[in-house]
Amino acid sequence: MVSDVHGNAKALARAGEGADALVCLGDLVLFLDYADHSRGIFPDLFGAENASRLVELRTARRFEEARELGRRLWAGVDRRPAIERAVRRQYAELFAAFPAPTYATYGNVDMPDLWPEYAGPGTTVLDGERIEIGGRVFGFVGGGLRTPMRTPYEISDEEYAAKVEAVGEVDVLCTHIPPDLPELLYDTVARRFERGSRALLDAIRRTRPRYALFGHVHQPLVRRMRVGATECVNVGHFAGSGRPWALEW
């Protein structure tokens, strides 16, 4: 089980060793590495100094200033084609690293429209869907909710809730973002709360899956906690650790 791969193709190629299947909870793309400002699409285009300034503004929650910096840098650059070319290069490498079988859903920085071009026959992409793996029913809900960050795959609360509802009762509920619990949402390094889903929390309380697994928060205050009968687990920041989280029944 991995989440928040953010360009770590080398470790991804080893992530399924010894496992019956690999499950990926999204965020394959590396747009900007908050730990190493020289890595990612943004510094490749505009340099590490501008990347450091953007990280500083976002961390301070000065989002309008961050957007103004972005507007100045992108002036005269055809933004979407430039980003898409870079994302395609990353996807070609990352999807090639997936073992078979892999079950994957999208993160908030992913571009879902491109995935069908790169997902091979051993990779099953699921979003608002369920599937049986090893005799257990897994449900998948991809993407994130809308934030001032305006990452590529943010959707409305209503659309997200509809996908959660479509999954229904499962043994393992797999999402990119956590349920809406403060302990699971606070990033101790970025010093901010990420957005979690109230609909997801309500579904966990109502349907009582054995596990609710997610990523998104890279350095959470709490990595796991129980909600009734459900063990809620942040499976980790794979880009940083290079280590998958093993689900053993």
TrEMBL record:
<dbReference type="InterPro" id="IPR029052">
    <property type="entry name" value="Metallo-depent_PP-like"/>
</dbReference>
<protein>
    <submittedName>
        <fullName>Metallophosphoesterase</fullName>
    </submittedName>
</protein>
<dbReference type="Pfam" id="PF00149">
    <property type="entry name" value="Metallophos"/>
</dbReference>
<dbReference type="InterPro" id="IPR004843">
    <property type="entry name" value="Calcineurin-like_PHP"/>
</dbReference>
<dbReference type="InterPro" id="IPR051693">
    <property type="entry name" value="UPF0046_metallophosphoest"/>
</dbReference>
<feature type="domain" description="Calcineurin-like phosphoesterase">
    <location>
        <begin position="2"/>
        <end position="220"/>
    </location>
</feature>
